[in-house]
Write a structure and sequence with these properties.
Strands 1-4-3-2 form a four-stranded mixed sheet, with helices on both faces. It is globular. The protein has a single domain, classed as Rossmann fold, CATH 3.40.50.11320. It is built from three helices and four strands, in the order E-H-E-E-E-H-H.
Length: 87
């Protein structure tokens, strides 16, 4: 399962989502790492992700909970990368 959160979301803050996931006490399979999109200037950091058994939590840089509307390329690459196992 992929769960994403815009890192500037005031309605559903990333910090609260991270705390919720941490309270599940699931083993971390892959610690925080950046994920990238290919912008006009080459690869750029578009957020960070952490993997658990059965859950990947990703942040999307510079947007709130309307990430698919305001960061279309980044969201497309995040979801495609997740589906193809490249995240």
């Amino acid at each position: 399962m992929l769960h994403y959160s815009g890192d500037t979301d005031a309605a559903v803050p990333t910090y609260g989502t991270r705390r919720w996931i941490q309270n599940l006490n699931w083993e971390v399979k892959s610690a925080w790492a950046p994920w990238y999109t290919n912008g006009a200037n080459g690869n750029q950091v578009s957020g960070y992700f952490e993997k658990y058994d059965g859950l990947t939590f990703a942040t999307v840089k510079g947007v709130g909970h309307m990430a698919p509307q305001w960061a279309r390329q980044a969201m497309q690459e995040l979801i495609t990368g997740y589906i193809h196992g490249n995240l």
